[in-house]
């Protein structure tokens, strides 16, 4: 699951590449949009809200996209060989000098720009909102505390509470709070959880590498996330990996039983 900082950076790079330019090609490879042609439209801006990306064109038109688990945008010089196989392309936006290809994008929608809030109005405060204020932090903390019996890991992934946290940060925030991701929300300080979430996303928002330890070297970037073989970055002890969440929201979840006291499911095969 792409984190909010991944989407934020994608939006900034797309805005830098496309804003103020006119499309010479604007093609969709998507059943509902296959007949739409955006050629001739100017790209006004690209912005993000949580994990939602909005590309705004002249004529009061916006393209909404969501990366979900495996989607991505690739920016290359016009005419360059695509970074991924053509069968994975869903959107082709090309100007005279650059092309932006949306690969494996599952959610695509064209809508009037004024209607963007209808797609994100249900979200909690955006952790990377440039206008973030104390009121946003207080609202996110109140949202988190609203269901005290809920497992912390599940709550952190709920974009209605605060927008931007994915599975990596869910695991790392739980570690930095010193509790298992299966700990009830009532046993943590919601304001501290929100502050940690924003701090981590802001720290990583302008780079491709994601680090929660402060160390960008390979194998040293996270405390517990995907460190099954290396062990806990703090104590070196073995980690537990269990599935958390239901159905399509289920995610592998790492924790250190020594550094993170609290409940952990007893069953489930180890993840290698």
TrEMBL record:
Keywords from the named record: DNA damage, DNA repair, DNA-binding, Glycosidase, Hydrolase, Lyase, Metal-binding, Multifunctional enzyme, Zinc, Zinc-finger
Residues in FPG-type domain copies: 223-261
One Pfam family recorded for the sequence: Fapy_DNA_glyco
SMART domains cross-referenced by the UniProt entry: Fapy_DNA_glyco, H2TH
Enzyme class, broadest EC rank: lyase
Keyword DNA-binding: yes
Record-listed E.C. numbers: 4.2.99.18
InterPro entries recorded: FPG_cat (IPR012319), FPG_N (IPR035937), H2TH_FPG (IPR015886), Nei2_N (IPR044090), Ribosomal_uS13-like_H2TH (IPR010979), Znf_DNA_glyclase/AP_lyase (IPR000214)
Domain Formamidopyrimidine-DNA glycosylase catalytic: 2-102
Domain of life: Bacteria
Protein family: Belongs to the FPG family.
Protein name from the UniProt record: DNA-(apurinic or apyrimidinic site) lyase
Provenance organism: Amycolatopsis rubida
């Amino acid at each position: 699951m792409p984190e909010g900082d991944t989407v934020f950076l994608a939006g900034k790079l797309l805005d830098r590449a496309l804003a103020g330019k006119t499309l010479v090609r604007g093609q969709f490879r998507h059943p509902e949009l296959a007949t739409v042609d955006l050629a001739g439209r100017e790209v006004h801006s690209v912005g993000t809200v949580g994990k939602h990306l909005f590309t705004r064109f002249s004529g009061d038109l916006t393209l909404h996209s969501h990366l979900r688990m495996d989607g991505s945008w690739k920016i290359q010089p016009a005419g360059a060989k695509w970074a991924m196989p053509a069968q994975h392309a869903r959107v082709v936006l090309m100007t005279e000098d650059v092309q932006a290809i949306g690969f494996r994008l599952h959610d695509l929608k064209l809508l009037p720009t004024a209607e963007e809030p209808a797609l994100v109005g249900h979200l909690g405060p955006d952790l990377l909102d440039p206008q973030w204020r104390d009121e946003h932090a207080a609202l996110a903390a109140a949202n988190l505390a609203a269901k005290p019996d809920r497992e912390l890991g599940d709550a952190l992934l709920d974009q209605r509470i605060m927008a931007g946290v994915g599975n990596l940060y869910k695991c790392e925030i739980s570690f930095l709070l010193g509790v298992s991701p299966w700990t009830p929300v009532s046993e943590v300080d919601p304001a501290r959880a929100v502050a940690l979430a924003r701090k981590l996303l802001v720290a990583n928002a302008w780079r491709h590498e994601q680090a929660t330890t402060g160390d960008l070297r390979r194998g040293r970037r996270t405390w517990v996330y995907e460190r099954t073989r290396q062990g806990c970055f703090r104590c070196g002890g073995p980690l537990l990996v269990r599935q958390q969440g239901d159905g399509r929201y289920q995610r592998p979840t790492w924790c250190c039983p020594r550094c993170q006291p609290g409940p952990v499911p007893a069953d489930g095969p180890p993840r290698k």
